[in-house]
Amino acid sequence: MLGTGALRAHLIEARLAGTIATRREKSLARYRLFAARDPRALLGLDPEGDWPVGEVLRLMGQKCGVSVDLAHTSGPDEIDPDRTLAALDRFAERVGEAAGRRAPVLIGTGHPHRLVGFYAALADALSAAGCPVLTPAYGARVDIATRFGVRTCTLDYVRGVAVMRETGVRGAPGTGGVHTHSPLPVRTALAALGGLAGPPPGLVIGDHGWVCGAGQLGIEAIGPADADDPALFVGEAEGRVSVAVPLDDGVPSAHYQPLARYVLNRAYLSR
């Protein structure tokens, strides 16, 4: 069993927390976009309150441990590993609660190259505990706006985890996939569930638009978020995201496996 101390050390060594690769410049730029209610930063969330840049920065300092000094404008950003651990415990509590009531679960990622393995471990354990792991709208086409124009993608599933692929492109399990912050994939999946016989998800697990898009629709949602992803933390502060776990979401995929083991141990789902 991976203890809290060992996981804390892993978070720092793998740069999941502590000094991370995310640049301060990128984080501040995203906070400004969020304050301006730019859809690229909202990720499907429609904030109830006013969130000027100073308030976004204050919240990110509280939730992630980033510097709240606006004069600090460059260099690598910081995430407090103790805040990550506390959020992982809350994340595990929600996973365990869903398992206890055998709730249908929908899992999806906008980071298929990094996080599929982490989510797949959760999907396997939840399925073994009797939770239906939902795979709605398989093969559906979704037009996602990017800075290069509209990209037509197809909704696919890898070990129960939703990913977006370039239309007409398929890869081996765990490979390929499109990096996206869009809430359109989760909206497409949830719309398909609305037209099917069966229960809606009791929990959505994911990142970016998967969490904010589901939370905005009133569905419980949890997931990790980087220091430049203020939408999930604002959603948590406003009560539409249940748990946002602060961590770097762009490190090599193997570094997330200890986190999956920790969560499953805490949720009493280890085998």
Automatic annotation (TrEMBL):
Stored Pfam families: Phosphatase (PF15698)
Origin superkingdom: Bacteria
Protein name: Phosphatase
Organism placement in taxonomy: Bacteria, Bacillati, Actinomycetota, Actinomycetes, Kitasatosporales
